[in-house]
Structures are given as structure tokens and as C-alpha cells.
Design goal:
Helix content is 29%, strand content 37%. With 388 residues, the chain is of the alpha+beta class. It has four domains: 99 residues, conserved putative lor/sdh protein from methanococcus maripaludis s2 fold; 83 residues, Elongation Factor Tu (Ef-tu), domain 3, CATH 2.40.30; 59 residues, OB fold (Dihydrolipoamide Acetyltransferase, E2P) (Beta Barrel), CATH 2.40.50.100; 69 residues, Helix hairpin bin (Helix Hairpins), CATH 1.10.287. The longest helix is centred in the first third of the chain and has 42 residues.
């Protein structure tokens, strides 16, 4: 039994010695590899330093000038002159001569109204007035003969003369009323133009308070559009506007601005003239442009140069470096090295191309107008020649 234990102990000792030798070999190999790596690194020739060129930017000074903001709205082309045709007498509509869309000339018949009762009454009044004139004339002739013989006074004759004059005036009025009533039976077009709408029915009653039709005058057109109260101050009589429809431009001026808003829309109605639009159909839509905001003699920069960060507005400016080191920093002697500054500014109007700068920069600052990913406070850049 003791012999077996001794044999087992001897085998364990031999195994431990073999393990220790294996670890020594592994450790030696690792140290050899590390030493070789260090030697190779020390023997490797040093790589030359590569100079990274500065980012190139373009700069310009702010410009001083005017900026305008245009607002566009949709308007409706309307006839410049609109006539609401109303009859001047009452009666049944016996004949209708026009319908919507017809082109009429001044004096063309619109409809015929049966006002025979009024005509007959006017005729009777005329005939009665004629009898009165005849009677007054007979009296005047008789009084004239008596005046010549001295049988009446001058005063009596003049009274008879006055009565005759009054009767004659009454006849003239009765004759005019008769002719007018006869004329009123046929309603005619007051102007040449187009019948935009008509509301006549055969045998329906017409009266001076009921509209028969609407006629738009020939030629000239106007444009109607509406503005909210915030734009009301931008339009007044004489304000120039320009309009576009199907690629064609038209010019005009504001001719009328309503001072009370519409009860339906809350907007203020505006009318403007339009030149050369005679052939545009009434009721057609048209785009209307006018200057709604304007600033004069202000600092302007390209809109693309303006950046935004954290709800604030910034411009990048540069200051140029001096000295030999600064020149070496540029890859070309034609460029100038510069330092970038991130400047917070306050902006005003912008038309998409230019933006007004209210504060933050001066007329002589150099504004970066090109983009590079290396724009930040303190960044070194090179300004392209001819841009500073």
C-alpha cells in the first residue's frame, strides 16, 4: 500500500515539473515577440509630417441698400363698369330679347313691358292739357282784341296771358309724360357690353325696384381681391400692383380700398385697375402681387450666409492673420489666412436672396458667404483671392 502511494506521489511531482517548464517556454516566447516588436519599431524610419491645407472660404462685405417683401394674393377679374338694368315703369313682361352671355350694343332692346294702362293715362292727361291750352288760347285772343279797343285793362290781359302760359306748360309736361311712358314700354341697353346675368320671365311683373339684368361694359377690366387687416396699411389708392395669369404679366394700380371688413370673411375688399386684360373672361382668377413691407438703406447679406443655432441667428466673419507664419498657413501665396468668428446678429426682412441685418456687424466686416464643415469659432481658414 505504501509502495503504491510513493509511486503516485512521484508521478505527480514529475507532472508539476513538466508544467513549470512549459510555462517558462511560453513566457520566454512572449518576451521574445515583444522585444522583437520594440526593436522593429525603433528601427522603422520616421514618416515625414504632412501639412493639412486650410479650408477655403469666400467672403464679402455687407451691402447697403433697400429690400422689399412682396405678398401675393388671388384676385378675380371683373368688368370695370357694371350696369344694373332696371325698368322705369311697372307692368307685365311681354317679350324678352336677350339672355345671359349675349353681346349687346347701346340702345338694343332688352325686353318689352306691357304698360298700356300708364300710357293710356298719360294720353288722357295730355289730351286734357291740350283742351286747356285751346281754351286758354281762345281767351287770350279775345282779351287781346278787347285790350286794343280799350275795353279791358292791361292787368286783365296779363292775367289771361299768364293762364295761357301755365296751360301750355302743363301740356308740355303731359306730352313728355306720354312719350316717356310709351318709351318705357321697351327697355333698352344703356351701354354696349355683355349680359352677365338676367332675371326676366315672360308674363312676370316688372317694376322700377326689380332688376332685369346686369350688363358689363366692353373693354376695360378691373381686379377685385381681399386683404387681412395686417396688410391694410400696405394698400391704398395709387399703390402699384402687378398681376400674372397663365404666364402673362399685367400692370395696374389700386383704385379702391374698403374701410369696413366683410361681415362674411372679415377681410377688406380692394379693387385695382389692370391694363391690357380686355380679353380675359370675367370671373377668371388672377395672381396679384404688391409690396407689403420695405426697408431702405439697410445692411444686407446673402441669405445663404445666415445660420441658426439654438434658436439664435449667426453670421461667420473672418479676421486676417499677419506675418510670415500666416502666409505659410495658406497653400497659395494668392490666398490669405484668416480666423473665423461666430457672431450673433439680429435680422430683419428677408426676400429669400438677401437678408436685412439690424445689429451684430458693421459695414466693413468680412462675411463668410460660402460653406465648409470647418466653420466654427476660432477655426483657421484661407480666403480665396479677390474676395477680401
Amino acid at each position: 500500500m505504501n509502495e503504491d502511494m510513493r509511486e503516485e506521489t512521484a508521478m505527480s511531482e514529475a507532472s508539476r515539473r513538466r508544467g513549470r517548464r512549459a510555462w517558462r517556454i511560453v513566457l520566454f516566447l512572449c518576451l521574445a515577440i515583444i522585444a522583437a516588436s520594440v526593436v522593429l519599431r525603433l528601427m522603422k524610419p520616421e514618416e515625414p509630417m504632412v501639412t493639412v491645407p486650410l479650408s477655403s472660404v469666400s467672403v464679402s462685405e455687407p451691402e447697403r441698400g433697400d429690400i422689399e417683401i412682396e405678398t401675393s394674393l388671388v384676385g378675380t377679374v371683373m368688368p370695370a363698369s357694371v350696369y344694373y338694368v332696371m325698368p322705369k315703369t311697372s307692368g307685365e313682361i311681354r317679350e324678352i330679347y336677350v339672355q345671359q352671355g349675349d353681346v349687346v350694343n347701346e340702345g338694343d332692346p332688352i325686353c318689352r313691358i306691357d304698360n298700356d294702362d300708364q300710357v293710356e293715362a298719360a294720353r288722357i292727361q295730355r289730351d286734357t292739357a291740350q283742351i286747356a291750352v285751346d281754351t286758354a288760347r281762345t281767351n287770350l285772343d279775345r282779351m287781346s282784341a278787347l285790350l286794343q279797343t280799350g275795353d279791358i285793362s292791361r292787368q286783365s290781359y296779363e292775367q289771361t296771358q299768364s293762364a295761357y302760359d301755365q296751360a301750355k306748360a302743363a301740356l308740355d309736361a303731359a306730352q313728355l309724360s306720354y312719350e316717356t311712358q310709351a318709351e318705357f314700354s321697351t327697355v333698352t341697353a344703356p351701354v354696349s357690353g355683355t349680359v352677365e346675368s338676367e332675371s326676366m320671365d315672360l308674363n312676370a311683373m316688372a317694376s322700377p325696384s326689380v332688376q332685369l339684368c346686369i350688363i358689363s361694359g366692353e373693354g376695360a377690366r378691373k381686379v377685385q381681391f381681399s386683404v387681412p387687416d395686417r396688410l391694410l396699411s400696405a394698400v391704398s389708392a395709387g399703390t402699384p400692383v402687378h398681376m400674372e395669369r397663365q404666364g402673362t404679366s399685367y400692370e395696374g394700380v389700386v383704385t379702391k380700398v374698403e374701410q369696413m371688413p366683410s361681415s362674411q370673411t372679415g377681410l377688406f375688399g380692394v379693387e385695382a385697375s389692370i391694363e391690357g386684360a380686355d380679353l380675359i373672361a370675367v370671373g377668371s382668377g388672377i395672381k396679384v402681387y404688391f409690396v407689403s413691407e420695405k426697408a431702405e438703406d439697410v445692411l444686407l447679406v446673402p441669405t445663404d450666409a445666415v445660420t441658426y443655432d439654438g434658436g439664435l441667428t449667426y453670421l461667420y466673419t473672418v479676421t486676417f492673420e499677419d506675418g510670415e507664419g500666416a502666409q505659410d498657413a495658406a497653400i497659395s501665396s494668392d490666398n490669405r489666412a484668416a480666423t473665423v468668428h461666430k457672431v450673433q446678429v439680429e435680422t430683419g426682412l428677408s426676400d429669400g436672396q438677401q437678408t436685412e441685418i439690424i445689429s451684430g456687424i458693421s459695414d466693413t466686416d468680412q462675411i463668410v458667404v460660402s460653406w465648409t464643415a470647418q466653420l466654427y469659432e476660432g477655426a483657421q481658414v484661407q480666403v480665396l483671392p479677390g474676395e477680401d
